[in-house]
Amino acid sequence: MDNRQALGSWLSGPRAAAEDAGVDFGYRGQQLGLPEEGPGSIARPGRRLGALAVDWALCMLIAYGLVTDGYDQATGNWALGILLVLSVLTVGTVGSTPGKRLFGLRVVSVRGGRLGLLRVALRSVLVCLAIPALIWDRDGRGLHDRLAGAVQVRV
Length: 155
Hints:
Helix content: 55-70%
Mean pLDDT: 87
Largest sheet: 2 strands, antiparallel
Oligomer: single chain
Low-confidence stretches: none
Shape: globular
Number of helices: 8
Radius of gyration: 19 Å
């Protein structure tokens, strides 16, 4: 292997290098038995981030208008608490937050069906911690979803 190939494999990342070596990773969600496209397929990162942005904006609006007198550090803290409660209540009952509903997403159990209340609470706490949600596996599931046995799918 010459220097250009070595540099090219380093720049494209380990997945591209493995694919060049003949490893077949399949599509996102294949290991979970989910379809590649359409309803029931793994939600893409852009939709998930958009849904989170809508949920956060909603929580900030509630915190700003109902809980505090003006915008300060306490507003963000209250918004985080409101996000936790919103997530537990809405994902635990209907399977999606208002932002997820707007973007056509739903949180379901890996085994199919609805998540139990304890797993919803665990997932919601991990989302509020932020770091677990930023660590993804090869299917694009965050660590918060893996630990809760959940997957976000398109509706």
